[in-house]
Every structure is written in C-alpha cells, then in structure tokens.
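Consider a typical record:
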Amino acid sequence: MMPSAAQPQILPHLDAVKAALEAAGLTVYVGGAPTSSAWTPPDKFAVLYPDPGMAVRESLADERTEFDSTIQITCVGGDVDRALWVADRVRRALATPLAVPGRTCWPPEDRGGPPVARDDDVTPPLYYVPVQYRICSTPA
C-alpha cells in the first residue's frame, strides 16, 4: 500500500515546536546541547528530544493520517530560577496549536515532568527540568 499524501511526518511538527519556542525568545537545540570545548552555554536554553511519533488510523480503512507524538523539552538554566523561567516560556509558547503546513494541530498537551535537578557533570553546573508535551494533528 502506497502512503497517502496526508501521511504525517515528524520533521514539520518538530520544526513547528522549535519555531514556537524561538519566537518566545528561547535558544533551542535539538537532540542535545553542543559538546565542543569551545562552546559556552548560554545562561538559559531549551533542548528538544522528539520521539518519531505514530501515524494513527483515522478509520477502519487503515488510512494512517492522524499524528500522535511526545516531545521532551529540557529546560536548562544557570540556576533554578533560570531553568524555571525557561519552563514558563515553553508553556506560554505551546499554549496554542502549532502551525504545521497541511495539518490541523491540537494545542500541545502539557504532561509535566520531574522536579528541577542540578547537573554537576558540566562546568559550571547547570540546572534542568524536562517537561513532556503530547503533539497531535490531523490533515487540514
């Protein structure tokens, strides 16, 4: 069976999340922060860790046009307040549906995350809090 034109793809959804966060004034990385020795981390930033999502059946006809995915956004700061500031910005940025070409998106569902933690494996230490969001869309 050939995939239909409405077959959902992860990259446009990831691009929409990244664009929404950057529009909120956040520095955003995907899959991890840079690791080169020349890189100096900003005092606050977000790191996106997307899953590949699922193409979900819309009916018994097995048309897989619905999209369902989870993305973890790790909010990082030089102190607890900065990490929580990033989390607040993320929540505001994702309070409305995403703009994905050819798709109608639900508002991202905030699934929360664990408490703020300190990362002593980097110098200087950074604080982080991962927050997960469910991303869903249907063909427009």
User: Anything to note?
Assistant: The first strand starts at residue 28 and ends at 30. Helices lie at 10-23, 80-93. The beta strands are 28-30, 44-50, 54-57, 64-77, 103-105, 109-110, 117-119, 126-139. The longest helix spans residues 10-23.
